[in-house]
Design a protein that fits this description.
Elements lengths: L11 E3 H10 L12 E10 L2 E13 L8 E4 L3 E6 L3 E3 L7 H22 L1
Helix pairs in contact: 1-2
């Protein structure tokens, strides 16, 4: 599921700014990066199901994980984890409370990033 309505896609920020804002609301950077791409993840456990809210981004100036690298955000996505195969994004039905939680997280992230721009 894509969260296009949030309006984060194509926004540019310093890596340090996004990492700080994302981690302050529970999205972790962990080890999902190379020098050009990065993913911020929020794990949601609902009963026996595991979901991941993911905010992908890529470097447009500099290398990740340097703080002053400029990254461009992509559309946040929600997926369901299936052991041992991985995360599926398409063709899934997500519980409304999970979608609501993701919307709240992303709106808060957007607000924090916009405040940092000022």
């Amino acid at each position: 599921m894509k969260f296009e309505h949030i309006g984060l896609a194509d926004k540019e920020f310093k890596f340090e700014t996004v990492r700080y804002a994302a981690e302050s609301i529970g999205l972790v950077h962990a080890g999902q990066w190379d020098y050009e791409r990065v993913m911020f993840d929020y794990k949601i456990v609902n009963q026996d199901d595991i979901y991941y809210l993911r905010l992908p981004a890529y470097a447009i100036k500099g290398d990740i994980p340097h703080d002053d690298t400029i990254i461009k955000l992509m559309t946040p996505i929600l997926g369901k984890h299936y052991y041992p195969h991985g995360v599926e994004y398409e063709g899934e039905t997500f519980p409304q409370p999970i979608i609501d939680k993701c919307n709240k997280k992303l709106e808060l992230l957007k607000k924090m990033l916009e405040e940092n721009e000022k």
